[in-house]
Amino acid sequence: MTFMRTVLLAAVPLALAQVDPPGPPFPNSTYPNATDPLTDSGAMWNETSPPSYPSPWGTGLGDWADAYKSARAFVSQLTLTEKVNLTTGVGWEGEKCVGNNGAIPRLGFKALCMQDSPLGVRDTDFVSAFPAGVTIAATWDRALFYQRGFDMGSEHRDKGVDVQLGPVVGPLGRTPEGGRNWEGFAPDPVLSGIAVAQTVKGIQAAGVMACTKHYIGYEQEHFRQGAPPTSVTESISSNIDDVTMHELYLWPFADAVRAGTASIMCSYNQINNSYACQNSYTQNQLLKNELGFQGFIMSDWSGQHSGVSSALAGMDMTMPGDIGFDSGTSFWGANLTIAVLNGTVPQWRLDDMAVRIVAGWYYVDREANQVANAPTFSSWTLDTYNYQHFYASEDWTQVNYHVDVRDEHAADIRNFAAKGTVLLKNNGALPLSGNAKLTAVFGSDAAENQYGPNGCSDRGCDNGTLAMGWGSGTDNFPYLVTPLEAIKAEVLSHGKSIEDVIDDYAYAQQNALARRVTDVGGVCIVFANADSGEGYIIVDDNEGDRNNLTLWHNGDDLIRNVTSFCNNTIVVMHTVGPVLVDSFYDNENVTAIIWAGLPGQESGNSITDILYGKVNPGGKSVFTWGASRGEYGADVIYEPNNGVLAPQEDFAEGVFIDYRAFDKLGETPIYEFGFGLSYTTFSYSNLQIAAHAAPAYTPTTGDTPSAPTYGVVSNNTADYLFPADITRIPAYIYPYLNSTSLSASSGDPLYAINYTFPAGAYDGSPQPLLAAGSSVAPGGNQALYDVLFTVTATVTNTGSVEGDEVPQLYLNLGGPNDPKVVLRNFDRITIAPGASETFTADITRRDVSNWDTVAQDW
Ligand code: BGC
After folding, report:
1. Residues within a 6 A CB radius of ligand 1
2. Does 32 sit behind a cis peptide bond, omega within 30 degrees of 0 on the bond before it?
3. Whether the Cβ atoms of residue 484 and residue 503 lie closer than 8 Å to each other
4. Which residue from 163, 266, 301 has its CB within 8 A of the most atoms of ligand 1, so it is best to mutate?
5. What is the rounded distance in angstroms from the CA atom of residue 474 to the CA atom of residue 508?
6. Which of 133, 222, 645, 781 has the fewest CB atoms in 10 Å of its CB?
7. How many angstroms separate the alpha carbon of residue 472 from the centre of ligand 1?
8. Under a CB-based contact definition with an 8 Å cutoff, are residues 504 and 527 in contact?
9. Closest residue (by CA) to atom 4 of ligand 1?
10. Residue whose CA is closest, atom 7 of ligand 1?
11. Predicted confidence band of residue 228 (pLDDT cuts 50, 70, 90)
């Protein structure tokens, strides 16, 4: 069944696919009040984003009530400039964290420290390097999702971080080439949603605010910020229809909101030609109104493109605060003070920003989780002494305390990565006994980076074994156990022999060693990788996004060479996502294939645990392995496609990404999403489905309260002049006025031009709740989470060793436009040999619902 229809709008190229044969009326799949429900396609070239105002004020829904009470009491005491200070960063490298807002010294409220990354504490020392999102996802284990979050949150807390800039569910992984997919979990909304919720809970249980990012439609690196200084000046527009938004990209954000994420980062891209950080539809309507998000929206670094507009459209905090890095100018700061004084931003909107930020602080109990000298590190240097204000070179002092926050996390990390390792093929070669007479290890991916594990800034190179991708989503390794050293230690513990060739191009040496292995009945282990990362670093011509899906460093040739002589070759791949394995996966000399993901610091130990059977593999692939990139149905846009204007990225495939695309297009993957072998076998029986009597779904009705304000803002501009007792730090962003004249203070030649801000933006009166929203708790209409069915099945371990199985529940929703199947639940169960366990999976109302674009409800 096809899901696209021709668009009949003027000025829209009619190149969009024609359907055949026409199915039942496809409902209006764009936004409310769009033209004709019968003819609107999903994603449209030059799509526009409808306005949604006013920006919803937080009401302290659900378990946010206490935090709101405290936050309101606190914000009530603040002056206008103190409130503005909460919302605005001090500028790039103005203080020690990657992002820092202003402090409120009068009340002893310290500036907040915002620090990457989603896999550890970035830009400092004595921290752990955890497995990346893609690897923890492959464990399919809720308890491990949570534990990793808690461990990471603990390290951030102990370094003095207030907001961990993670986890990631945008990108979701629309295209396998997307550079930052590995920071997130999986191109499936349910797996990602469960993983993000557990991660958020873990991080926040440790007393640190999570920042779930990047909201939303941020699916590629090319043109994420235009392509200056070349022709394209605007960021790419992700054109997404209403169904795809709800059923795919918004889904895991809903789980993050429901789990209580204290903050959400708006992304660099545009959505339907409106920048994410000033998109009133995605921020006001979807996130704050429909999902009832109670925390604050923080901009990605320089993701803000306007002052008043972004405030009215729901953004709450600008990072790093300056317009260009170190420009000394800001859309907010003093300009937000001016905007409140001249009425272009209503006081209630600023108060709402402040309350949301402080409520997040109370919600995770930051008060009880302070450490001495926080933040105890500087992102800009590892030296003990340097400048407090790094960019301005001011205030020489101790900036790094070198606090070792790693605790006992190494054991967890080793376990996470082993549990997230996926066995794709095994002809009986694995597990290894350790008694092979000769073990041969091949490939640079087995060994050290010659510059050291942290030798390339933000891991921006692919030398040696790959244990994380590159970009801001990284941290420094405290050490990196390579596969070669761990395998060597294992082999030596058996008193056997091991040799290696780590030069990927030393074909003669590879061949010679491979022959000797075959001669004595030994084993060859080939390591290869594929890397990607964030677009500000280019590695091997890959501008963040991968240029292709092949193994790097001629991995295919390496495998071909070794297998042409070695009849017992085990291939281990450290990759950011799927790679093309068609040249070797069915070669009979390839006796096993393992995906080892991005394992973090314990890489060698984790893979050795799997290879030698100390851990029985139970990880399952979190993406589909196809035979060509074309099979994935969507791809990265690498070249401008709209002249100098914003490139248009039509998400025309709708909800059909990864396995849903393969199913729709009738393609057979090499290894399917959810696939993974074990050293034992399992059988399934006794599938039962029990229906529950749940109350009927009731669309939410009623109104919000009116917008509250806290404290009185004096109109006397003299109250906000730059204080005489503060010395200006160059390029630092302050909330203060330079003059009692607002116009002079703004310094903007366009000040007071006649401009009409969107209707409704200033309306602080009670607003109608959305049918899909809630007056009870964050996450949308609470009836969505009613359990309608429970599925159980018996899973039996039919082999001779203990093992983990991951039963996965897929549904067909039955509609004409639905994927063949969608994942809806799973569990990871450890089962003793010969024993049986019961798999139990709930199905909620949301799990069996479609988004109805006409009713604007599920
Ligand atoms: C990235 C964010 C990151 C921020 C701060 C941006 O370039 O997109 O993910 O948190 O920088 O480092």
Report:
1. 98, 116, 165, 213, 300-301, 472
2. no
3. no
4. 301
5. 36
6. 645
7. 6
8. no
9. 301
10. 301
11. low
Q: Is residue 763 annotated as a catalytic residue, yes or no?
A: no
What's the CA-to-centroid distance between 300 and ligand 1, angstroms? 6
Q: Which atom of ligand 1 is nearest to the CA of 214?
A: 9
Tokens representing residue 524 in the block: 């060859």
Q: Tokens for 126?
A: 């004595």
The answer to whether the beta carbons of residues 99 and 319 sit under 8 Å apart is: yes
- The residue annotated as part of the active site, out of 300, 412, 545, 827, is 300
The pLDDT confidence band at residue 436, using thresholds 50, 70 and 90, is very high
pLDDT at residue 226 in the model = 83
How far apart CA 688 and CA 706 sit, in angstroms, is: 49
Q: Whose CA is nearest to atom 11 of ligand 1?
A: 301
Query: Could you write out the DSSP letters of every residue in 157-217?
Result: HHHT-SEE---B-SS--SSTT-TTGGGS--S-HHHHHHHHHHHHHHHHHTT-EEEEEEETT
If DSSP codes are grouped into helix, strand and coil, which group holds residue 317? strand
Q: Which two tokens stand for residue 838?
A: 């019961």
Q: Which of 151, 142, 135 is nearest to 186 (CA)?
A: 135
User: pLDDT tens digits, residue range 636-687?
Assistant: 999 999 999 999 999 989 999 999 999 999 999 999 999 999 999 999 999 9
Ligand 1 geometric centre to CA of 28 (Å): 35
DSSP run (H or E) holding 67: helix 65-75
Shortest-distance Cα residue to atom 8 of ligand 1: 300
Amino acid at 308: V
The per-residue pLDDT for 30 is 52
